[in-house]
Specification:
Length: about 290
Amino acid sequence: MSSYPINISIKPEVKAFFDEATNTISYVVKDPSSASCAIVDSVMDIDYAAGRITYEHADRMIAYIEENSLQLEWIIETHVHADHLSAAPYIQNKLGGKVGIGDKIMVVQETFGKVFNEGTEFQRDGSQFDALFKDGDTYQIGNMKAFTIYTPGHTPACMVHVMGDAAFVGDTLFMPDGGSARADFPGGDAGELYDSIMKVLSLPDETRLFMCHDYGPNGREIMWETTVADEKRDNIHVGNGKTKDEFVKFRTERDAQLAMPKLIIPSLQVNMRAGEIPRDDDGAPVIKVPVNKL
């Protein structure tokens, strides 16, 4: 039985937006009893080779919100993503809303502030965000209460956001045939990730789970919604009673074989700034490429 204040009877409307370039799924989540909504894990488009930023993905979400006369209240980041760039400032400028992330963002900012040799002007206190959440914090989306679950392991700042009967799991879990995300980034830990997954799987069986990524294992179509019951039964990494020791052994061996995400260098620099692109001394947007640091 979950100790979290979940209300299965509240069923928000969830609209998914898949980004083919990064295999990311972003969401507009609407309170069923009002026009209020939240965005979870938005994407800013980048042509890394050309150094070009565009906003087609974010514009699709903005158009959906405007066409349905919704009121954006929150722009949620489940963690500091290493594989896509957040469009939070662009969306906030168009529609308003507050940008929120877990308070352990400060750990990430301290760690990667050193990797990217950021100067003293780079604030490492999370002040780039409007709200910093702790484990168990609650907030409102219209009349719907949302709450946070601290889920470290993939990164030190990961959080699952639960809105009614829907939980947005970030990279804590994948679809049952996808298993789980890597735990070898700085501050990651496979044992912590297993414990975090168990927190999520303590939610009621009928809780809807929404993924941040899907890669269509074995050629199946892209999917992003499952349930706690399905994950407990079928998840290839943690389901059907797999132990923590089994998970840690598998995850550690698997992670040692993985290459770095293609967009990790721009993603970390942008996302630890709440989606703002860093700038040089003349104010021009610029991405650093640290050598032999990752």
